[in-house]
Amino acid sequence: MLGCTTGSKRLDEILGGGVETQALTELIGKYGTGKTQLCMMLAVTAQLPPEESGLGGNVAFIDTEGTFMPERIYQIAEARSLPEKVTNNILVARAYNSSHQCLLIDHLFTVVPENGVKLVVVESVIGYFRGEYIGRDSLTERQRKMNVYLHKLIRLSEAYNVAVVVTNQVQANSVQFFGNPLHPAGGHIMAYACTHSVMLRRGKDGTRVVRVIDSPYLPDVPAIFIITEKGIEDVPEKK
Asked: Which own/partner pairs from 220-229 qualify as long-range (CB within 8 Å, at least 24 positions apart)?
């Protein structure tokens, strides 16, 4: 297994050396917490050679929300003195409904080995399913389809030694009176399928706070990063 750097040494530490291959890493958070920015950063750093904490390969990005920004990729690459071809090495597919999203996942089993892909990003993993399968009557069918879809991503990561990163939304538990009422959407299906679940939230002074909330071996400790023109960076130490 390899680890892909996030750009933040502190975040890499709590992830065991970066986002790992042969694993499904879930990024959870409300809008504006940095999930997309972290995915953009990984799409750049995954192309770095392993000796520079990258994966030495291309990237496949399935976009369900229209959040992929090539301009942002250019900005990160330029700020880090990386070649412009970085953007050309990211294979982007826009999904328009849950069925299309599942079809794109099936195509990855051909796309990944033929194009030297080492990182797969799905943003967001559950958005269409929540919008198309509404109410208790459709919950069983929704969870069944998601279970099949997520296990295909797991098999993909293991078969081709790639890192798979998915973003997820949060939902509030209206009957919870103590603790954090926000929980990852998708219920037990998402919880069981993902190797590592990472929660992001806004911190003070524009920072983002990250914590591993579920993992077989990663520590439950926080990390703080900032978003800059270079992508994701550690918070500068105060002199």
From this structure: 221/14, 222/14, 223/8, 223/10, 223/11, 223/13, 223/14, 224/10, 225/6, 225/7, 225/8, 225/10, 225/11, 225/34, 227/34, 227/37, 228/79, 229/75, 229/76, 229/79
